[in-house]
TrEMBL record:
Pfam families: ABC_tran (PF00005). One of its GO terms (molecular function) is ATP binding. This is ABC transporter ATP-binding protein. PANTHER family: ABC TRANSPORTER ATP-BINDING PROTEIN (PTHR42711). It comes from Comamonas jiangduensis. It comes from the Bacteria. Coiled coil: none annotated. Keywords: ATP-binding, Cell membrane, Membrane, Nucleotide-binding, Transport.
Length: 301
């Protein structure tokens, strides 16, 4: 039985223009124990899919089950299987950290879990904040509580919706260390993120969404193989020769040219030399997930 089964899910939001289709027949299966990444540009439909999974939004058509439970028909049973860390920081400001976690445990009907709450506080660097009032915490600390809150009932599936957006390096490392440990213990993890190096390092499999469609779905290592093998990267103040402009990715002074092999690199260098382009900090690097992502997004309709 898959941990998460998404079967031809579509979602159309009602709008003043008559409707907007955010998801178009999305199908995915995530096996137990996977660390799965859901990637896509802004507005691709990631949060919509997670909201349907968490039972917060209804699909227009299709079906999602978690550990075999239908997220709509068996809402309470399905919800217990999930620990959802949302993007937004929403809290009751009147409680302290420990009370917040006890309250959340009560919501799931979990009692006598103080040892687990202590472990969560410890693992997320919150031990000395246990008695701090929620409103006294910094944004990063609140985010840690949000993670702890999602995990109070030890759910088999952990869903993280952009958990590292705007958080510092220390919290990222604390979070990834803890989530990786839980994954090794058998918890399934579904992650959405815009940090592609994090997805590359953590996820064994990845789906890419664009305009509500799945445009890539494979093991991370296979996706990396499909990309151009290398990238010629340099800085310049000059305009690129016309022949290279369509394939180049330019960010300020930085130019990146995806290459399929040494012949491409030789051709790029010859063209640049001929045009008299002066290059600084030139390097040839291996293609990474960001290169794959940009390639897939460019190619997909
Ligand atoms: N309640 C709503 N009513 C109408 N349109 C909506 C609603 N919620 C989301 N949308 C639209 O659906 C599309 C998908 O949004 P969604 O938030 O799922 O994208 P996302 O992939 O999570 O984006 P991001 O990376 O910016 O978080 C967007 O075009 C968005 O404007």
């Amino acid at each position: 039985m898959p941990a998460i089964s998404i079967q031809s899910v579509s979602k159309t939001y009602a709008t003043s223009q008559g409707g907007f289709q955010a998801l178009n027949h999305v199908s995915l299966e995530i096996a137990e124990g996977e660390f799965f990444g859901l990637l896509g540009p802004n507005g691709a439909g990631k949060t919509t899919l997670i909201s349907i999974l968490a039972g917060l939004t209804k699909a227009t058509s299709g079906r999602i089950t978690v550990m075999g439970q239908d997220v709509q028909a068996d809402f309470a049973a399905a919800r217990k299987q999930l620990g959802v860390v949302p993007q937004e920081l929403v809290f009751d400001p009147f409680f302290n950290v420990r009370e917040t976690l006890r309250l959340q445990s009560g919501y799931f009907g979990v009692k006598h879990n103080d040892a687990w709450i202590d472990e969560l506080l410890e693992s997320l660097g919150l031990a000395d904040k246990a008695h701090a009032n929620m409103r006294q915490l910094s944004g990063g600390m609140k985010r840690r509580v949000l993670v702890a809150q999602a995990l109070v009932h030890k759910p088999p599936i952990i869903v993280l919706d952009e958990p590292t957006a705007g958080v510092d390096v220390e919290l990222r490392q604390t979070l990834w260390h803890f989530v990786s440990k839980l994954n090794k213990q058998g918890h399934t993890v579904l992650l959405t993120t815009h940090y592609l190096e994090e997805a590359e390092a953590l996820c064994n499999r990845i789906a890419m969404l664009k305009h509500g469609n799945v445009v890539a779905l494979d093991e991370t290592s296979n996706l990396l193989k499909t990309a151009s093998s290398n990238v010629l990267q340099f800085k310049t103040d000059q305009a690129l020769p016309e022949a290279l402009a369509p394939v180049a990715r330019v960010t300020g002074r930085m130019v990146q040219l995806p290459a399929q092999g040494p012949h491409d690199i030789e051709r790029f260098l010859a063209t640049l030399r001929e045009a008299g382009v002066v290059m600084e900090d030139m390097e040839i690097r291996r293609a990474d997930l960001e290169d794959v992502f940009l390639q897939v997004m460019k190619g997909a309709a």
